[in-house]
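pipeline/complex-builder :: batch 7 item 3
reading input block
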Amino acid sequence: MPGTQLLMTFPVTATSHSIADYRARGGYATLMKVLETKTPQEVTQEVTLSGILGHGGAAFAAGRKWQVIKLDDGQPHFLCANADEGEPGTFKDRWILEHNPHMLIEGMLIAAYALQVRNAFVYIRGEFDLPFRRLQGAVDEAYAAGLLGEGILGVDFSCDLVVYRGAGSYVCGEASGLLSSIEGKRGYPRNRPPRLTVKGLFQLPTVVNNVETLTNITVILAMGAEAFKKVGTPKSPGTQLVSISGHIARPGVYEVEHGYPLKKFLFEDCGGMMPGAKLKCIIPGGISTKVLTAAEIESVTYDHASFSAAGSSLGSGGMIVIAEGTCMVRLLQVLLRFYHHESCGQCTPCREGMGWMHRIIDRIVAGSGRPGDIDQLYQISRWNDGNTICGMGDAAGYATIGILDKYRDEFEHFITQKRSRLDGNLEVVAHA
Amino acid sequence: MKHLIPEFERWKARFPKGFESSLVLPCVRRIQEDRGYVADSDIDGLVEYLGVPRMQIEQVLSYYTQFRRKAIGRWHVQTCRNITCSMRGAERLIDHLAKKLGVAPGETTADGRFTLSTVECLGSCGTAPVVMVNDTYHENMSAGKIDALLDGLE
């Protein structure tokens, strides 16, 4: 096991997601303790003290986000769990939704109490069918048990929870795009300021946190901020659910304690590469994070500071492992096709830029690449940076620059020789 | 869509007051489940029921990839073509499906049984390649497994 486990602490069975099993594991005792012994301000203080960073990709301190909410402003406040999980390579929140949905609900109720929220939402991507049914089932169980609705657990605290289903849009995973979608509109992101904690859902103060972050709130309030901080590293307290896929022997979701050696995780916990494969590089946290070569991860540990020093970031915890023999030109083609498809079209640099980049890479792969194409990909990536409302344009640029910087020779070969040096392979080991 | 209004009314009760606009996505989804697609008359009905601008509903319908204005095959075979799935055989699988069904992605078989689509990441990379048939994920797919699955469908 890759270090201390805080969320994956029980064996998954046919009933482990039910309220009865959750209660048998001590579930909802933390909520009761919080409602009986803590003020909302004390809860936010505990979360701030824990130092927990957001698990959705941006790693923003959850406590700092919560502190922006003014409890006495006389306005309704909203809470949204982001379960849109659309960053390619990421499937960790699905584990929580399918196997531990009550821990998310408990975390959301604690957050709703701290932020004085009457109406909370979980925004779940439209394709997730089993995760939706599991979560909706858990919400129904919680209503029946008096844990949601009016006068929760007999105290003066009421909260309703709606599970809101998306309908196919990557950009709705961006917090403001997500709120536009809950308003029943296109998932267009919004300019900041104002921050969503000031003007969010229907222009009212709203906290949007990732599913894993909110699930961890239950853990923090159960064990206390001081004990939580002892897990992980001083700058990255706690753990991360890592979803690992690609040319790896045992793909899946693992809970990794921050500070755990990356190579040990890959080669011991995940069983190393697929038989016959050799490590070329990894995309550490969803495709929008910069690729790291085998040499670059030699002494990296799984925490924000170490990944940042190596020139990338933990992102969403969606790690893609890539073997020697994989054609990076074709790989970038898949990424750029995706970004082009998912650009919402609101901002010109992203709407046009993604299309230009996609057409350039298609041209290279078709054997019609031109001498200036690599420079043009760099140029468009830089044009986008900071010139769009949301981070998608920037992210596509970072991913592109990361691959071009490290594998430029493969692109030059493709353009001059009109073919891939690696036969265009993405699938290096034939799989059943 | 009129017969679905009692169901919509129950949902409304869990939303805060004044959130009628939020019901656009859930209502459109339910209408599509019911009819298979969203017809002009459904849009008229929703404009009247929710009191939102017609433009908002049209925008939602054209923005989200899961919503459609036309009928498709009984079984919607959606194959992920994003990075991990491609690294674990999705490209071969899509070629196989196109050949087997005799249609290109985006098309429906002449007998109306299958519509083949390619989609972006479904969030199932640990069990790639993944194919979604109607609402259900089928993971760790191969040509043999997809044949067995599709041959068993009406």
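note: The mean pLDDT of chain A is 97.
queue -> next item
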